[in-house]
Amino acid sequence: MLHITDAELDRFILDDAPHGDLTTRSLGLSGTPTVMVFRAGGALVASSTEEAARILARLGCTVTLNAASGTQAAAGDVLLSATGPADAILTGWKVAQTLVEYASGIATSAAGMVAAARAVRPDVVIACTRKTFPGTKAVAIKAIIAGGATPHRLGLSDSILLFPEHRALLGQTTLAEAISRLKRACPEKKVVVEVTSQDEAEAAAAAGADVIQLEKFTPAQTAEVTERVGPCGILIAAAGGVTAANAADYAQAGAAILVSSAPYSAPPVDVKVTISPQ
């Protein structure tokens, strides 16, 4: 699983409690032995429970992790528990709970999309884009992986995606020349070409694209392209507006890859927390 650094976790803690917990300290409860339990409020796919455990451990708690990222949990299932002094428990409480709720919301959404698409086409890949909210990429990418999806691109540095915007800047350079240039410069990489029409898709296939990414095509339009281009051995990726509600339609249309940002905007799931004297 993707590693999230201690520095990031410390930033989460400092954001909420830069000078400790004023209420707990003022009540004189700081050293009171306390136990805290996280339970799933409903069916969910857990994510970032390891990071929640690490946050609590960094504050001085002893933690038991019951549900690793990727675990499918039912309502009432224990995700993790912690014991320690009240100031450590209460300082880590909301930071850890909120992290698990948001990350598990993304993971649960991704898992729903994967299940919907693979019910129609078992080998289809759900690939989530790099369009995460700034500063949350490590958590978000770990979450979609926990849900059974895969990263589409981790960033501009790791893969080649030739957009229409690139082609607009190439002057008289043909698409075939541009693809050839990319393959010479990066021979170990596949060249993905994004297109916005069926004619562009067929031109990209003829020009040597390895993957053709259909931007905002309907499932019917996707089926037309896969029928014409698919026999060439070129992978077809559907992108733009792909959600759990229509993932099966795109899979049925023949797209091998469904590219989506939808899981990143999923609402947080409910994680219920109980805190009591130890």
TrEMBL record:
Q: Which residues form a coiled coil?
A: none
Extract the GO molecular function terms from the UniProt entry: nicotinate-nucleotide diphosphorylase (carboxylating) activity
Q: Which InterPro entries did the record assign? A: Aldolase_TIM, ModD, NadC/ModD, Nicotinate_pribotase-like_C, Quinolinate_PRibosylTase_N_sf, Quinolinate_PRibosylTrfase_C, Quinolinate_PRibosylTrfase_N
GO CC terms, sorted: cytoplasm
Report domain Quinolinate phosphoribosyl transferase N-terminal positions: 21-104
UniProt KW keywords: Glycosyltransferase, Transferase
Biological process according to GO? NAD+ biosynthetic process; quinolinate catabolic process
Q: What are the Quinolinate phosphoribosyl transferase C-terminal domain coordinates in residue numbering?
A: 106-273
Instruction: Specify the superkingdom.
Output: Bacteria
Q: Which family does it belong to?
A: Belongs to the NadC/ModD family.
Q: What is this protein called?
A: Putative pyrophosphorylase ModD
Source taxonomy: Bacteria, Pseudomonadati, Pseudomonadota, Alphaproteobacteria, Rhodospirillales
